[in-house]
Amino acid sequence: MARRHRLIRTTPARVWDVLADGNRYAEWVVGTSSSHPVRGRWPQKGATIGYEIRLGPFRVGNETVVRRCEEGSVLELEAHAGVLGTARIALELREWGEHCLVIVDEHPLRGAGGTLHNAGFEAVMQLRHRAMLARLARACRDGAQAQEADREDSHA
Question: Does the pTM exceed 0.90?
């Protein structure tokens, strides 16, 4: 079970805003090139988001389903990865002073991912989570900067 955490220097509400925007999924999820809501209202339970993975000239479309959502604090997803099967990805947001501690916990559920799951696979997932949490922090920072610029423009 790959578990990793990162302190993001913003509020849990700002982190949640990024997680709750289905169009921004590809900004923080490693390996995706685009995303869009498909069914339901993201991130409510049962909502689905479609995303695309590009490897050179190859493109593969997949979906992720919200399995549990506690607005502002918990988002559990089931990501479909084609022949690799499915994985559970749980994100927990904790207030940490003025900042947000984000904890990600991922493990395979079905398919080849579960069969191939070993220490090497865990190491790769740790690297992926490190990159994903860095991208999430950047998306939160970029979103905050854009909001600040909008506020300044409206006061000009």
Answer: no
